Structure formats: C-alpha cells, structure tokens
Target: Aluminum-activated malate transporter 1-like
Amino acid sequence: MEAPAAAAAESSNNTNTNGGGAEDEGNTGGSSWWRLPERVWLSAVRSAETVARIARDDPRRVAHSLKVGLALTLVSVVYYVTPLFNSFGGSAMWAVLTVVVVMEFTVGATLSKGLNRALATLVASSLAIGAYKVASLVVRSEEAESILLVVFVFFIASAATFSRFIPEIKARFDYGVSIFILTFSLVAVSSYRVEELMPLALQRTTTIFAGVAICHCTTILVCPVWAGEDLHKLAANNLDKLAEFLEGMEIECFGENARSKNLEGKNFLHAYKSVLSTKDKEDSLCTVAKWEPFHGKFRFRHPWSQYQKLGTLCRQCASTMEALASYVVILTKSQYPEANPELCLKVQTTCGQMSLHSARALRELSSAVRSMTTPSSANNDLSAAMKAANSCRNELLEDAAQLQVMHIAVIGSLLSDLVMQINEITESVHNLARLARFKDPEKTRNDVVINVKT
Amino acid sequence: MEAPAAAAAESSNNTNTNGGGAEDEGNTGGSSWWRLPERVWLSAVRSAETVARIARDDPRRVAHSLKVGLALTLVSVVYYVTPLFNSFGGSAMWAVLTVVVVMEFTVGATLSKGLNRALATLVASSLAIGAYKVASLVVRSEEAESILLVVFVFFIASAATFSRFIPEIKARFDYGVSIFILTFSLVAVSSYRVEELMPLALQRTTTIFAGVAICHCTTILVCPVWAGEDLHKLAANNLDKLAEFLEGMEIECFGENARSKNLEGKNFLHAYKSVLSTKDKEDSLCTVAKWEPFHGKFRFRHPWSQYQKLGTLCRQCASTMEALASYVVILTKSQYPEANPELCLKVQTTCGQMSLHSARALRELSSAVRSMTTPSSANNDLSAAMKAANSCRNELLEDAAQLQVMHIAVIGSLLSDLVMQINEITESVHNLARLARFKDPEKTRNDVVINVKT
Model:
C-alpha cells in the first residue's frame, strides 16, 4: 500500500529541490581540466535543448518575449521622437520603467498590474501633495517642514506595508500598495527640492499612464494570451484526465482481458497525477481572469470562481484515484488463493460498470465545457454508475462481519506503512544532523562534566 | 470512506475562492439606506479585528512594517541633508525606489533581491554602454545610431524576457532579469540625450548600491527575521504535529478507554492537516535561506535542501494519516457484530504499540531538531514500532484469503466513492453552465434546422 495523494503531486514540480542539492554532492571533484572544452560544449547543447523545449511546450512564450521587446521599442520611439519627448519631459524614463514592470504573460495580469499602477500613482500623488500643503500650513521653517514630511513618510509607509499582510489586499492590490509607497515617498521627498510640485506630479502621472496604455494595447492587440481561456481549458483537461484513468481501469482491471500482471508501467495509472498539482495555477489564473474584459465566448463577469470549485472537486477525485491505484497494483501483484470467488466476481463486474459509466459521464462533461454547451440534464451514464455503486455497496454490506475485519485490517496495514515512513523520516533527520553538524549530545554531556570538575 | 489527502489541504488556504464568490450572491439587495452608518461601523470594527489578529498572529509583521518606514526615512534623510544630496545628484530617487522594492519580510529575501538588483544594474549598465559604443562606431548619423540602439533594446529585452521562463533562472534570478531589462533600456535610451553617459550610469549605480546597503543594514540589524530559522522551526513543528496525531490515536482508538464514539470532533484527528499544505512555504523559505549569511546556529552553507526532503517525507506521512483517520472514523461509527474477535484484538494491540512507539520516536526527532543535537542512533522506540509493524503484517498475512477479499472490497468501496464525487462534479459543471450561460444544445440544433430551412 503506497501513501496516497499529496506526496505524488510534489514530485512533479520541484525544481528548487533539485537545484539546491549541491551540498550533498561535494565530492565529485578531481576534475580533469583538459576536458573543459568538451564540458562547456555539452552544457551549451543542453541549455539550447532546454530553451527549445520551453519554446516548443508553449510557443506563446516566444510571442510574449517579442511583445515585451515591442512595447519597449514603442516607448523608446516615443522617447526619441523629439516633439513627443518635449511634452513628456525628463520623466520619459517613467514610461520605460512602467513597461518593464507591468508587462505580464496574460492579458489579465497585465491589466491588473497596469490599473494597480495607474490608480496607486494617482492616489499617492494626491495624498503626497496634500501632505506637502499640510506641512507648509502647519509649520513655518523649512527644516521643520521637511522633518514633518519625513514623519509622514515613515507612518504612511509603515501602515501601507502592514496592509500587505491582509490576505484580501495581498491577493488583489499587492503591487498597487508597493507603487503607492514608492510614489508617496518620491513626491513627498522631492517636494522640498522642486518648486513647482504640481506640474511635476502631473507630468509623471501622465507618463506612467502613457506607459500603461502602451502595455495594455500591446498585450491585447498582439497575440493576446487570455488567462480566462487558459483557466477554461485547464478545467476541461482535468475532466479528461480523470476520465482517462477510469477508462484504463475498465479495460485493464475489470474487463474481459483483466488481471494483467504489469499494471505499474501503464500510463493510465498516472493520468490523474497532474490534476493533483493544479491548485496554484488555477488560483492565480482565476485572480487575474477577473480583470479581463469581454473576449471570445467569455463575458466580463464570467463566473470564474466556479472553475475553482470545480477544480477542488476534481482534485478530491484524483486523490481518491491515487488510493485506488495503489490498491489495484497490490491486488494484481499478489498471488493469493482465490477466496470467496463469487463475491469477487460480483464486485469486479460492478466495478467495471462503475468505471465505464463514470468515464463516459466525465467525457460528456469535458466536451460540454470545451464547447460551452449545457450538458444534458438527464445523464444516463451517471445514473447507471450510481446504480452500480449502490449495488456494490449492498453486496459489501451483506457480509457485515467481513466488512469490520476489512476495516481493521486496513487500519493495521496503513499504520504499518506509517511506521516505515517514520523510519525514512528518521534517516532523513540523521542525514540533516550529519550535514548540518548538529551537536553530539554525548560529547556535550562530557563537556559539562569536565566543566563541573575543573 | 472520505477522499484522502489533497482536498483537505485546500480548505485551509483559499482566501481567493471566498473573495471572489460574489457572482453567486447577487440577490442580497433591497438595502435599507438608513442602516448605512451601522453597517459602516460594523465593517470598521471587523476590519480592526482582522488587523489586530494579523498583528497578534505574528508580531514580527508589525516590526517589518516599521522597518520599511525606517529604511525610507533614512533614505529621505540622505536626500534632505544637502551635502550628501549633492553627491547623489538628482538620481537620489533611485535610492528611494530601491528601498521600496527591495525590502522584504525575511533577511534572505531582502539580500537576494538587493544582490540581484545591484548585480543586474552593474551588468546592464556595462552592456548598455558597450551597445552605445558599438552603435557610435558602426554608424555615423545620429538617426541611424538611435535606430540601432532601439534594435538592441528590442532583441536584448526579448531574449531576457524569454530567459525568465527557464525554471532555474525563474527560481533565483527572476527579479534580477527584470532589473536588467529595465536598466539596459533606460541607459541605452538615455544615451542619445545625455552627453556624459559614463558619469550618469556611475552615479545611478552608486545610488542604487547605497539604497541596497541601507536595506541590508536595516533588515539585518533591526529585529532580523531569518528565513532559515523559520524553515528550521517549521520542520520541528511538522514532526510534532505528526506525533500528536499518533498519540491521539493511541489514547482514543487503541488504548484501554478506546472505542469512544465521537472521534470526529477530536483535535488530534486534524493535527496532521496543516502539514499537508506546507510545501509552498517550505520551498520559498528554502530558496531565500540559501542567501542568508552565518547567523545563530546556522552556517552560511547550512544544508537547507535537506529540510525540503524531510518536508516531503512528512507530507507523505500526513497523507497516509489522512487515509487512516477516515477509516478510523468509519470503524468507530459502525455498528457491526463482532466478527473474528481474536484477530481484531490482536491487531488492535499491535496498532496501539505502533502508534505509541512511533509517536515517541517522532517526539525525539523533533526535540533533536529543535535543540540541534544528533538524535541517538539506537532508537529503541523506532525498533519497537518496526517490530510491531512486522508482527501486524504477519497476523494479517496468516489469513491470505481474507486479505484478498479485503483488497477487492476496498477497491469496490473506493470506486463507489468516486462515483459520488463525479456526481458532485456534474452538479458543479451544471452550475457553471447556468451561471456562464452556456449554449443550450437543443436550441442550437433547432437554430441549425431553421437555418437549413430558410
């Protein structure tokens, strides 16, 4: 019996873990320097392969890179064309800065950052000018005024920083708050130096708005990548993957040619695994999809959070599949004598029914989502599967005593697994203690004794 | 039988889901405007409570907010004190900008961002000056020169943006690359306007270094929050939580007062749940901990990635516990007649042994990690648990036929669960179809028919 769920989801996505394992492999040394050119060449080839794979996996990445280049070129052109340059003034660099930080992969993320930036700049500039006016009204001397402004900066920056710990603000306005702090500090601080504060603030705000406008136009008009569309496709794909697992189960485990011995290598047994690790991607896509305007078949207020609910259910389903997969592998590997063949056959038949009909129901749902048509409300496959599930439960319940022993046996078996896992944990802690040079308790005790003696 | 693992981990951390559920609750309306002041007051109280809770949960958040305020104040003072201001020139704003974006919660994150920023600025300025020199050597006319520079900006920005999709670069240098693009574009573009490029680039780089230095001093000297220490504590806490679950199991399920009926409300049954969702936190802490210098008991090259390995094992353990918890709850709720009481008693006793000894072994490990002492290598508790696990397995294997029926029954039971979950998925897709106004296939077909007729 393998440990179910979560653990598997981890293996797919741990670049960090691999990237940082250098501590353990310190003694590969004794490098032969004359093979250096060969090594350099090999690593160059490997890098090129990585780049090609990343581009092939999602060609929109290449398009995005070129889009960033394009947006920056547009800003530079604005800067170079002198009449425009004059109207933007020396703060044209703010447009460049805006483009670099605002351009994101999806339309939603770019819009969200751009609007955050524009709004935060406006609010912060107004507030800073207000603070400047208050300071100049309250005190007379220039020193006192600048001290008051620094005090304002201290308190407003602290309060705004704290607000970033509030989950609601963190989720939607994190970037906006940091721009707010930046702009407020800059305008408040520069107020002491610059006589004409209002025109400066106005000029900078205009430049930033121009930068944001260039970003928004580029991201929407040139090969747009809609977060909402990605989220929608992800939902349909998840449903398909769940169906794939059940189809495989039906054919390989409960069908006529069932009881094949080598299940572990089969693809269908891993179909659900990628579903388990979709949560983060789904959440971030959903957050930014809410900023996207009407596009394709999606309205502005499309019910994006429904996709999160659906995703949670799919992941729950996938983790039950994980448990199921490990039991099936054990069963096909074991060489038990046939016991209670009647019950086994009955359960096997209903299992086949359940898998087949559930898979069909899922396929219907995924194609409904894909084509954005309402799935038929009288789903025959689902009701057939539910019927089979009930009859399976009844068959098992018939022998209630059997069921109790089964539950106790499963608990015993899971606990034995736990002990083995704790054994691994112990080894891991010992490794950590060795590598991190933890104190040796024996030695420490001796030291203490010696200290007492001396 | 509940679906194991992942699903539970999700419930703990879904502010986004709740935050965005507004679509579904559109009809709370009919608001009575005279109750507006009351509502405003209530929501103000609620916000104050949230803020107080966030501050109480981790007082270091308040310290961090004040630190950001302090760092900005320091920069502002530098700006106001005129002799210093002259040496920094008009680019003092770059120091403000640096402080706002570089100050992070943990020392490691601040160091990582600061070093990224400093290094990227240096490299990008040099490269941009190089590009400027090349452009002025290759072509004669000013127009051609600026066109060439814009072309440089386009290609370098595109290539650098693409490099952010490479996982290794994304993990460690994402911020650095974005600063690289920014600085390169700014310097390359401004080269056309500013005659003395070198002094300008030098001045800006110096200012940014000063900002980074202020951030690093503030973050290390004033209430430092070490990511490494948090990671270390997280590991010990996870071990304790696993132990807590097993201790509860021993007392409530296998001990002398076992078979208590109301297990579901017990705390210990949820002890492991927070362990399941620690992966993201662990990964990000580990990434930044690697940037931290020697502090407390931690060396510079402390084996941080070991904590990730330990964390993966702990989460695997927690997901087995999840499966175990659901079986235990079912068993204590069920009213089966006693079947094979001899086997049940035997398994129960060994289960008690396994839980007790495993819990003790885990407690020893957690206290070893906490005090950073090597755990004793001859762990008596672990070997006792292993012995009990083996004897439990043997007891179960004695009745092999029983075991086969058990596995088949478990598979049948898991599949029935799956069908019920797919039923929920179906409902969720129907909800989505309704809210997103999917096309009705019937209607569409009729439309087509009409179209054909006309």
